[in-house]
Amino acid sequence: MKPYHTYTVAKEHADLTVEEYLKQILQYSGRKIQKLTRQKGILLNGKPVYLQRKIKPADTLRVLILADTAHGLQPEPGIIEILYEDDWLLVLNKPAYQLVHPTGQTTSGTLANYLAYELQQRGTAGTVRPLHRLDRETSGCVIFAKDSRSQFILEQQLKTHLLKRTYRALVKGMIQPPSGVVDAPIGPHPNLPNRRAINPAGERAVTYYRTIGSFDGATLLELNLATGRTHQIRVHLAHLGCPVIGDAMYGLRTSWMPRQALHAAAVSFQHIKNGQEITVYAPLPADFSQAVDFCTKM
User: Is residue 69 very low, low, confident or very high in pLDDT (cuts 50, 70, 90)?
Assistant: First the structure.
């Protein structure tokens, strides 16, 4: 028997068409609606229905739950730390040195490989959908949507800044002013293909920061992103003359922090079902905490 989501039409949604209800109220994408139509997966009061049919209060709309495929991602046993989970999404705590998803020559050992295996073991295997990514050396919160509709809704929250990402960074020097905003476009580096740089022809990038700890020669920052450009925080902080400690690409490695001291400390979003704001925190990993302790003793 095919699985369906079931919705009851409220009075305020009367006279919308089925298509309008799916797009505006349920936030299904046009592509998803096309797939549902091809599979006759939209039922109004138990019967197939045209998209332009108007709905009435108390009508029952049933929408087929489409089977997802893993798109070649190989499930692989491994340790994952689940910080939050509900019927629509998970928030995982990514350790440093692990990729979020296979890319380039790396096809195994990623957070997505391990999550795919976890879902397979539960008997709920489907597409692994990371909403955003972190650099290999950056630790902390990563959101994974469990289905395409949830992914679409969360992506809209990301675009409208309802979904917020908060970071911790330990940087070289004393940043001035102690709090502020960096609004500087980021684009390809003119000479180094793997790097990004402040570039007037690049895409707008906005980073908010505030000092939460000051040491002799180092500063602990809290940062929030209004945009999500590649290497954004690292490029912006280097632009201010305070590169992330341990960042070999935009700063310098150190013996006491052998990777970039950058951590995705929290994510906030609106619950997909009831709109309630939820904030999920990832504790500082041991190496980051030890680096902060080292700075306090310098």
Answer: very low
Rounded to 10 deg, the angle between the 30-38 and 148-159 helix axes is 170
Residue 175 is predicted with a pLDDT of: 94
Active-site choice (59, 135, 147, 247) = 135
* Triad 277, 282, 286: Cα angle to 5°: 165
Spatial contact of 228 and 204, defined as CB atoms under 8 Å apart: no
3-state secondary structure 34-88: HHHHHCCCEEECCEECCCCCECCCCCEEEEECCCCCCCCCCCCCCCCCEEEECCC
* One domain for residues 142 and 126: yes
Q: Is 135 a catalytic residue?
A: yes
Looking at residue 115, the DSSP 8-state letter turns out to be H
- Residues 227 and 182: beta-carbon distance below 8 Å: no
The CA distance from 55 to 18, in Å, is 6
173 Ramachandran zone, left/alpha/beta (phi>0; psi -120 to 50)? left
**Residue 76 within any structural domain of the chain:** no
Both tokens assigned to 98: 């692990």
Backbone dihedral angles phi then psi of residue 264, each to the nearest 5 degrees: -80, 95
Nearest to residue 247, comparing CAs of 223, 229, 268, 263? 263
* Alpha helix positions (H), the chain: 18-20, 30-38, 111-122, 148-159, 232-239, 286-296
Per-residue model confidence as pLDDT tens digits over 146-174: 988 899 899 999 989 999 999 999 999 99
Q: Which residues of 52-91 are buried (b: 16+ CB within 10 A; e: fewer)?
A: eeebeeebebbbbebebeeeebebbebebeebbeeebbbb
Backbone angles phi, psi at 18, to 5 degrees: -55, -45
> Is residue 286 assigned to a domain?
yes
Number of structural domains the chain divides into: 3
Mark whether 125 and 171 lie in a shared domain. no
